[in-house]
Specification:
single chain; Flavocytochrome B2, Chain A, domain 1; binds protoporphyrin IX containing FE
């Protein structure tokens, strides 16, 4: 009798634990987007340990982990493909287009002025 009770208890605990880990596995990490003006974007230039952010069509992408970009410069580009800038126009001159960029994290949006930064979102400069 006791044996059956403890078995039931073990099964319940196991089910609860698997439910918890299942929840963890599928819990999506929610990251607030950053909203940066062109001036603020300039600090994410890949220099001195800064991330490498570029803007294209109003969206900001994090290219820090891209192997074709080193110290803020796109080593495959003969032109001004430099991190911390709006590269919408420069990208038009490349053969590969936006698809090479959108495989990297979309971290936020480029805004015209600080007044366009949504108040609800938390803005961190980390
Ligand atoms: C201006 C002329 C440019 C040239 C000639 C150029 C050329 C290249 C080449 C040859 C590669 C290697 C992969 C491939 O062969 O497709 C590459 C990769 C890449 N380019 Fe460019 N690029 C240019 C501009 C840009 C700009 C403006 C951006 C960003 C807005 C950009 C973002 C990237 C990224 C993120 C990758 C890596 C993609 C991956 O990991 O697969 N490129 N580029």
């Amino acid at each position: 009798m006791l044996h059956r009770k403890s078995m039931t208890l073990i099964v319940i605990v196991a089910l609860l634990l698997s439910g918890v880990s299942f929840g963890f596995m599928f819990k999506k990490k929610k990251i607030d987007p950053v909203y940066l003006t062109a001036e603020q974007l300039a600090q994410y230039d890949g220099k001195n340990g800064q991330p490498m952010y570029v803007a294209v069509d109003g969206k900001i992408y994090d290219l820090t982990k891209c192997r074709y970009w080193k110290d803020g410069v796109h080593d495959k580009s003969p032109q001004a493909a430099i991190a911390g800038r709006d590269l919408t126009e420069v990208l038009k001159t490349s053969k590969h287009g936006i698809k090479r960029v959108t495989r990297y994290p979309h971290v936020g949006f480029l805004v015209d002025s600080v007044d366009d930064i949504p108040q609800k979102e938390s803005q961190t400069d980390e």
